[in-house]
């Protein structure tokens, strides 16, 4: 017994000395030398923002989802440190008796090559089914005149009952007035990609129910050190159900990149296949490429050099995917709490942090978000892809 006890004490002493020798903190992950420092552009003390886009004059526009917060307005321009309803208060006054002319549940937004702001209205409340078919729309606003110039509605066979319009890209070189590529992240709708002819307003779906657009079964991300499940108050915990979400487009407009939020993979499809309304999903699927792992992301952006920028919400990081497929970490910052939408303009990469993972729907009804939410940016030698 004495021998065993002595051995145990010796082992404990060795472990203790080894523990003392360990550094107090591990070194931070290396970042690319091409990366700059993240700086705060704006702090949000009100309702939670989700999207950001910037026009050629540096004007910044943000969107607010109709989720758990009481949203007083859906779109704002950040002016002089304030969030000003854009383009006016009237269109931002949610009115279900006027679903075709007021914002009901906005998600994605994007400024095109002509400085027109395109806004996706999901027509939903808290990720539920569409409230009114007339509410699901794509609204174009000329940021030079601050006037609505186009409203495109989606028929029931395109915007399905559980469709959730999420992100978009615009190519003005296609057709008479350009095309829009949109993600439907609603898992109950089968998810998918939607194409809109901006001149005629016609739209159609592609890849509905395909495994590349749906959430990965059993997907469990780890955010802020915790496994993330949907945990509604009074309900059972379930896996995340976000399908095709973020988009990016190649500098020549020939390739569309997409990724479900509940996935770590990146996919690519020729835009020509999506634009052909007569091409079957099976024929489109033959042209889809699995580009491999990119990390768990909720936002993509692209530059004219063919790089794709990625928000990694598990790592609290911003990542750049080179045309070769190599991944570079540009930033890893404790302020990146669910980095969401990205935007490139004026030599900066903008990122919106909305603490999505802290909402009550993931914590049995307890809202763990801590204001302010932040819009950050870093100096970057990159130009946005503007197809005109």
Task: Summarize the structure in words.
With 388 residues, the chain is mainly beta. The protein is built from three helices and 26 strands. The longest helix has 20 residues, at 2-21. The protein is globular, with a radius of gyration of 22 Å.
Percent strand equals 35-45%
| Tally of DSSP β-strands | 26
Order of helices and strands: HEEEEEEEEEEEEEEEEEEHHEEEEEEEE
Indicate the percent of residues in helices: under 10%
* Poorly predicted tracts of residues: 1-34
Radius of gyration: 22 Å
Q: What distance separates the N and C termini?
A: 83 Å
The shape, in one word, is globular
Strand order of the largest sheet: 1-26-25-24
What is the count of helical runs?
A: 3
Give a concise summary.
It is built from 3 helices and 26 strands. It has 388 residues and is mostly beta strands.
Essential attributes:
388 residues, mainly beta, four-stranded antiparallel β-sheet, 3 helices, globular, disordered N terminus
Fold blueprint:
Elements (H helix, E strand, L loop, with lengths): L1 H20 L17 E6 L6 E4 L5 E4 L11 E5 L2 E4 L20 E6 L4 E6 L15 E6 L4 E7 L11 E7 L7 E6 L7 E6 L5 E4 L15 E2 L2 E2 L16 E6 L5 E6 L4 E6 H5 L5 H5 L3 E5 L3 E6 L5 E5 L4 E5 L5 E6 L6 E7 L2 E6 L19 E7 L9
Antiparallel strand pairs: 1-26, 2-3, 3-4, 4-5, 6-7, 7-8, 8-9, 10-11, 11-12, 12-13, 14-15, 16-17, 17-18, 18-19, 20-21, 21-22, 22-23, 24-25, 25-26
């Amino acid at each position: 017994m004495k021998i065993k006890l002595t051995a145990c004490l010796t082992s404990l002493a060795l472990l203790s000395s080894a523990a003392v020798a360990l550094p107090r903190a591990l070194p931070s992950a290396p970042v690319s030398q091409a990366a700059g420092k993240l700086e705060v552009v704006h702090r949000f003390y009100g309702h939670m923002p989700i999207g950001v886009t910037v026009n050629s004059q540096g004007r910044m526009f943000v969107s607010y989802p109709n989720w758990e917060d009481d949203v007083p307005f859906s779109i704002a321009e950040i002016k002089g440190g304030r969030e000003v309803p854009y383009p006016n208060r009237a269109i931002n006054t949610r009115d279900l008796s006027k679903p075709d002319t007021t914002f009901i549940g906005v998600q994605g937004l994007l400024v095109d090559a002509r400085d027109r702001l395109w806004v996706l209205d999901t027509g939903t409340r808290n990720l539920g089914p569409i409230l009114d078919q007339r509410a699901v729309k794509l609204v174009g606003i000329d940021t030079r005149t601050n006037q609505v110039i186009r409203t495109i509605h989606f028929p029931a066979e395109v915007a399905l009952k559980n469709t959730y319009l999420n992100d978009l890209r615009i190519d003005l070189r296609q057709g008479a007035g350009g095309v829009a590529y949109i993600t439907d992240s609603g898992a109950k709708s089968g998810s998918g990609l939607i194409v809109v002819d901006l001149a005629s307003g016609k739209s159609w779906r592609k890849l509905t129910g395909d495994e590349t657009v749906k959430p990965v079964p059993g997907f469990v991300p780890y955010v802020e050190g915790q496994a993330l499940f949907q945990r509604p108050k009074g309900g059972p915990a379930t896996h995340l159900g976000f399908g095709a979400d973020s988009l990016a487009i190649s500098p020549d407009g020939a390739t569309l990149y997409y990724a479900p939020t509940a996935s770590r993979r990146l996919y690519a499809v020729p835009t020509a296949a999506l634009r052909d309304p007569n091409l079957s999903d099976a024929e489109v699927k033959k042209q889809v490429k699995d580009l491999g792992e990119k990390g768990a992301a909720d936002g993509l952006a692209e530059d004219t050099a063919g790089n794709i920028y990625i928000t990694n919400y598990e790592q609290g990081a911003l990542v750049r995917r080179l045309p070769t497929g190599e991944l570079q970490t540009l930033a890893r910052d404790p302020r990146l709490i669910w980095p969401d939408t990205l935007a490139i303009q004026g030599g900066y990469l903008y990122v919106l942090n909305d603490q999505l993972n802290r909402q009550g729907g993931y914590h049995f009804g307890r809202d763990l978000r801590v204001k302010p939410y932040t819009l950050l940016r870093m100096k970057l030698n990159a130009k946005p892809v503007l197809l005109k």
